[in-house]
Design a protein that fits this description.
about 130 residues, alpha+beta, STM4215-like, 6 strands, about 25% helix
Length: about 130
C-alpha cells in the first residue's frame, strides 16, 4: 500500500469512527473484516491506487471499498451516513491533500445466511503535500 492509500484509509477510518450518528447505527467500524463481529458493522475493504496529478503536482487516485454488513433498514441508513461523511474527506491526510472525494459506485450483495453486504467504492483524488 502506498502512502496515499494508507493516508486515505486512516483518514476515512478516523472520520467514520468519530461519527456519533453512524456509531448509533452499527456495532462497530473496522479496518478490514473482523474475525468476530455482530452485524450490522462497517468494514474498510480493498484500497486501489493509480497515478493521478496535475501539470505541476504529483498525485494519486485512491479507490477505497467500504462495506456495511448487516440486514434490513440499517444498511440504507448507515450507507447514507457514510456518503455524507465522505463529503468531508477533503483536506490534509498524512502528507497528502485530498482534493476530491465522492462515492463512485454502490452495490448490494446477498449472502446465503440471509444477510446483506452493501458495498460503496469511495474515490479520492490526492495531491502530494498537505494543502
Amino acid at each position: 500500500m502506498t502512502g496515499a492509500e494508507a493516508a486515505v484509509r486512516a483518514r476515512t477510518l478516523a472520520l467514520l469512527q468519530a461519527d456519533a450518528e453512524l456509531a448509533g447505527l452499527v456495532h462497530g467500524i473496522f479496518d478490514g473484516v473482523p474475525a468476530r463481529a455482530t452485524a450490522p458493522f462497517v468494514a474498510l475493504d480493498a484500497a486501489e491506487g493509480r497515478d493521478w496529478g496535475t501539470k505541476d503536482r504529483a498525485g494519486r487516485e485512491v479507490r477505497l471499498t467500504l462495506a456495511v454488513h448487516g440486514a434490513g433498514a440499517v444498511d440504507g441508513a448507515a450507507a447514507a451516513r457514510i456518503e455524507a461523511i465522505a463529503a468531508t474527506l477533503r483536506g490534509g491526510a498524512d502528507g497528502w491533500a485530498v482534493v476530491g472525494a465522492r462515492v463512485e459506485r454502490t452495490r448490494t450483495r446477498f449472502g446465503r445466511d440471509g444477510g446483506r453486504r452493501h458495498e460503496m467504492v469511495l474515490r479520492c483524488r490526492c495531491l502530494v503535500g498537505d494543502g
